[in-house]
Design a protein that fits this description.
By secondary structure, the chain is an alpha/beta fold. The protein has 3 domains: 136 residues, 3-Layer(aba) Sandwich (Rossmann fold), CATH 3.40.50.300; 63 residues, Helicase, Ruva Protein, domain 3 (Orthogonal Bundle); 127 residues, Zinc Finger, Delta Prime, domain 3 (Up-down Bundle), CATH 1.20.272.10. Helices cover 59% and strands 10% of the residues. It has 17 helices and 8 strands. The strands form 2 sheets. The chain has a 6-stranded parallel sheet with strand order 1-6-2-5-4-3, with helices on both faces. Helix 8 runs parallel beside helix 10 and helix 11 crosses helix 17.
Length: 340
C-alpha cells in the first residue's frame, strides 16, 4: 500500500495491522530515520533490546536472501513481537522483498529505510503494490508542515517566536528533519529563561551555513551570475543539501520577486515592499536590485522551470543534482540582459 506524505505520521502512530513490512523512503534522510524509529518504538519499548530487534545489512541480505525470512520467523527469547531493521536499502534488494512479501513467515515487523526512490523503482513498487506492506514517502518539511514541526518542538519548552524569527527558521530549516530538531533544541538551550524568541536570537544561535548557502544559490540564480551559481551549487552539495531543497529555496526567492512585482505594479514603493518581504538584509539588498529585471510574466516562467525540475527529480529517475543544475542555469540565463 502507498502512504502519502500527508498521511505518513498518522500511519506511523497507528500502522495498518496487515503491514508486515514498511519501507520509509525519500530525500529527507532525517525524517526517514525519525519515522522508522517511531514505528520500531511502537513495537519494542527498548531500542537496545537485542533479543527483539535485529538489524540486517543490505550486503548480508544480498549474499543470503533466505536470511530475511529466517529472521522474520525467529521467536524472541524474552517474548513479544520482533523487529527486523534494514537500512540503506536499494533496488538491488527488490527481488528479495518481492519473494518475502508473497508469503512472509512468522510475525516480525520488517522496517526498511531507503533514500530517494523514483516512482518506477522496483523496490518502491513492491511495497506499494503489496497488501501486506506499506511504502511511506518522506519529503522535506516546508510551509505549514515545517511551521508545525517548529511549534511542536518549541512550544513544550514554553517558547514563542516573533514573526520575523519564525520566517527566518522556515527559510533556514526543513531539508532534514533531524537537523531541524537539533537546531531547534540548540535554540531552546540558548534562550535560557527567556521565553520570547526574536530574530536576533535565531540569527545568533541557529546554524546559518545552510541558509547562507541556499540564499546564495537563489540570489546568484536571480542575478544571472553563472559563476556564483556554480560555486553555490558545489557548496550546497558538499553541505549535504538535497537538490529538491535547493530548488525550493530558489522557488521561495522567485515567489518573493513575484509578490514584489505585483505590489510595485500597483504603485507600492519598492523600498517598503522589499522590507516586508525579506527576512535578512542580504535578501533585502538582492530584491532591491533584482526586482526591476523580473517583471511578473518572467518570474512565472522561471517558477514553472523550477517546479518542473522538482517534479522531474521525484519522478524520472534521472540524477536529481543534474536536473537541478540544468534548471537553475536556464533561470539564470533568463535573468541576464539580452546581448545587442
Amino acid at each position: 500500500m502507498k502512504i502519502g506524505a500527508s498521511n505518513a505520521d498518522a500511519f506511523v502512530r497507528r500502522p495498518d495491522p496487515a503491514a508486515r513490512a514498511v519501507l520509509f523512503h525519500g530525500p529527507d534522510a532525517g525524517l526517514v530515520r525519525e519515522r522508522a524509529e517511531a514505528l520500531v518504538g511502537g513495537v519494542v519499548d527498548d531500542p537496545g533490546d537485542a533479543f527483539r530487534i535485529t538489524e540486517l545489512s543490505p550486503a548480508r541480505i544480498k549474499d543470503d536472501p533466505a536470511l530475511l525470512a529466517d529472521e522474520a520467523a525467529s521467536l524472541s527469547f524474552t517474548g513479544g513481537r520482533r523487529v527486523v531493521r534494514v537500512r540503506q536499502a536499494t533496488d538491488a534488494l527488490a527481488a528479495v522483498f518481492e519473494d518475502f512479501l508473497a508469503s512472509p513467515p512468522g510475525d516480525a515487523l520488517i522496517v526498511v529505510e531507503a533514500g530517494e526512490l523514483p516512482a518506477r523503482a522496483r523496490l518502491r513498487r513492491a511495497f506499494e503494490r503489496a497488501g501486506n506492506a506499506a511504502a511511506v514517502a518522506c519529503y522535506p518539511d516546508e510551509g505549514g508542515a515545517l511551521r508545525k514541526v517548529i511549534k511542536e518542538t518549541l512550544s513544550p519548552q514554553g517558547l514563542t517566536l516573533d514573526p520575523a524569527a519564525e520566517s527566518y527558521l522556515v527559510a533556514a530549516l526543513g531539508g532534514d528533519r533531524q537537523v531541524t530538531r537539533g537546531e531547534l533544541d540548540k535554540l531552546a538551550t540558548y534562550m535560557g529563561d527567556e521565553r520570547r524568541v526574536s530574530l536576533a536570537d535565531v540569527e545568533a544561535c541557529v546554524g546559518d551555513s545552510a541558509i547562507v548557502t541556499l540564499d546564495g544559490v537563489a540570489i546568484a540564480t536571480a542575478d544571472g551570475d553563472l559563476a556564483a551559481l556554480d560555486r553555490g551549487l558545489a557548496r550546497a552539495h558538499l553541505e549535504g543539501a538535497q537538490p529538491v531543497t535547493v530548488l525550493r529555496a530558489v522557488a521561495r526567492h522567485l515567489q518573493r520577486l513575484h509578490r514584489a512585482a505585483g505590489r510595485v505594479a500597483r504603485g507600492e514603493p519598492l523600498e517598503r515592499v522589499v522590507k516586508s518581504l525579506a527576512h535578512h538584509f542580504r535578501i533585502e539588498r538582492a530584491l532591491r536590485a533584482q526586482q526591476p529585471r523580473w517583471p511578473a510574466p518572467r518570474v512565472v516562467r522561471a517558477m514553472d522551470i523550477v517546479l518542473d525540475a522538482e517534479r522531474a527529480c521525484k519522478t524520472t529517475g534521472s540524477p536529481a543534482a543534474a536536473i537541478c543544475g540544468r534548471a537553475l542555469i536556464r533561470v539564470a540565463r533568463a535573468a541576464r540582459p539580452a546581448k545587442r
